[in-house]
Write a structure and sequence with these properties.
Largest sheet: 5 strands, parallel
CATH architecture: 3-Layer(aba) Sandwich
Number of helices: 5
CATH class: Alpha Beta
Order of helices and strands: HEHEHEHEHE
CATH topology: Rossmann fold
Strand order of the largest sheet: 2-3-4-1-5
Shape: globular
Helix content: 25-40%
Length: 173
């Protein structure tokens, strides 16, 4: 069964959160569950939003960190030496879903934090940006964790939190 949490609020079902936030572009953090459940929830937020006709792109931070790093450099460094090639140019104006967020290295987390600030600040110098970031993690993301997500990045991404419950049981068919 899917459960949801929103900071400072009582647990609300995902359908209620979708209705409440469908016109918002704030970040969504999807916790618990398996990779498919987290991506399905992020896609549901995308489809319910004004972005539904824009691209949705999912990346696994455990496997795709180098792709994300190059994309972040392309977004954040265009002023240095002209536009940089960006492997994620297709996500412009859409939703970028980053699953297994806790797997990102600290340098890439810092770049992602800069991107969040650029998206929120509406910087015109940065092109091809996603309009919404969604993140996922099966792990419990604690602000004071020595490993995992930095508190600043977690605070920026944890605006709407949806918990999709326990992941698939091991050995289940």
């Amino acid at each position: 069964m899917m459960r949801s949490k929103q900071r400072g609020a009582a647990a609300r079902p995902p359908a209620c959160l979708l209705r409440l936030h469908r016109h918002s572009l704030v970040s969504v953090l999807v916790t618990g569950g398996g990779e498919r459940e987290r991506e399905a929830m992020a896609r549901a937020f995308h489809r319910a939003s004004l972005l539904r006709h824009r691209p949705f792109l999912a990346l696994d931070c455990g496997h795709d960190e180098s792709i994300l790093r190059r994309a972040l450099q392309g977004w954040l460094l265009p002023a240095i030496g002209g536009p940089q090639p960006n492997p994620l140019h297709d996500v412009e104006g859409g939703t970028l879903f980053l699953d297994r967020l806790e797997r990102l290295s600290r340098p890439v987390q810092q770049q992602l934090l800069e991107l969040v600030h650029h998206i929120r600040g509406g910087h015109e110098a940065v092109s091809n940006l996603p309009a919404r970031l969604a993140a996922g993690s099966a792990a419990l993301l604690l602000d004071d964790s020595p490993e995992g997500i930095t508190p600043e990045l977690l605070d920026c991404l944890d605006k709407i939190r949806v918990d999709v419950g326990a992941g698939p049981r091991r050995g289940a068919a």
